[in-house]
Amino acid sequence: MDEPSPIIANFGGNVRFQPKHFYAPKAESEVLDILNRHALGKIRVVGAGHSWSDAIVSDDVLIDLSQLNSVHVERDAEGNAWATVGSGCTIQHALDELARQANVTLPALGLITEQTIAGAISTGTHGSGRHSLSHYMAEIRVAAYDVRTGQAAIFAWSAGPQLRAARCALGCMGVVLSVKFRCASQYTIDETIGQYATLDEILSVEGEHPLQQFFLIPHAWTLYAQHRKPLPPEQTSRSWHAGLYRLYWLLFIDVGLHLTIKLLAAWVASPSLVRFFYRWVLPWMVWKPSGVVDRSDRILVMEHELFRHLEIEIFVPASRVREAAHFVQDVLSVFDGQETSPTLSEALKSPGMLERLQSLRGTFTHHYPITFRKVLADDTLISMTADASEPWYAISFITYVEPRDAFFELASFLAESMAALFGARPHWGKYFPLESVHVAGLYPNLAEFRELCRQVDPKGVFRSAFVNRVMGEDSV
User: What is the pLDDT of residue 2?
Assistant: First the structure.
């Protein structure tokens, strides 16, 4: 049924719009009816809204797939568990059902469990140390248009270029109905937290802790690492203090740290207190335990949705991560009011961005730890690590301050300068300031992706203003 159109707002509050038509179908047949009814219109899909990009915005038709949330697990002749999951299923619901039905879990897991499966794969959501979730999709079923009849039909792709395109398609390959993937056996993770002065110290132990992530602390410029290694499936026992550690993390990090950041950066709005906090107070808040063992779906996630924020995440090749980390520190220092270093000045000459940075000096004091997560190369066409010959690192920047104009200037500068210097790619599902002129040279398979989209959407029904902006007016 065509329901009264609500005003749609995303989690971060930076995207707000009202579509002309709003639907919440309960069955796949209803999705086909919607597509046929609006075959000359523009259609987008909304998941949980836990994204900061404009990808979901539609002035015409918006489809909410939250009622297509089934989870079905079956085992093949070799005993492998395969899950077929409805596109509107949240990550948390999928985790719960996989554990209940077969004691298995997702092959990759990001920080946030409120996202829907379709939203997560459509934008390349990832964790640390593995491929993005998109990479693991063995089959994707979508509702799109049959080019021979012009009518909506269901397509199932389990191989070939169509699958590679649909694994991360920003909604351009049709409406995702369900996905199928091979589950991972339920497993535990051993986590140790350490503090370091240099990035090399952390990278040197990456082989022993393949799922680790680490944080560059602004103004103190020290690093903390969550060293994580998966344990064999037969090792299921939790540490005696795992529950205490999770309680500490909830109270002191998920709540306490974020409340403190909100207080100092947003409510009191004191850059000097932000600097003081990171240099002198934070080290006393961080518990650095050794060998905490807990189940993967407990230790890999955070309650990151408790406080509204905005994020940009920028991917760089692993071979350039040291340069990128130094570059980030130097740029944030200039935004905080320091002089531009000779090294940074020299780096910004080639892309012609030195004067722009100098004009922005002292306009923004960054107030959140910068997160680094390693992501393996994806077998996709346009996810952030698509067509890569090496892993990439996702570098995350978050703000809790509103209004966000100063942060938007920082985010745009970082995205454009790092794209020019490191071939960096921003996360599709987070704040995305680049235009098509920047994007064109970052994705070698973009032309192939565009052609595949035209095959299932010759009239551009799934094309949006966001897609036109980042891929070109006649991109797909």
Answer: 53
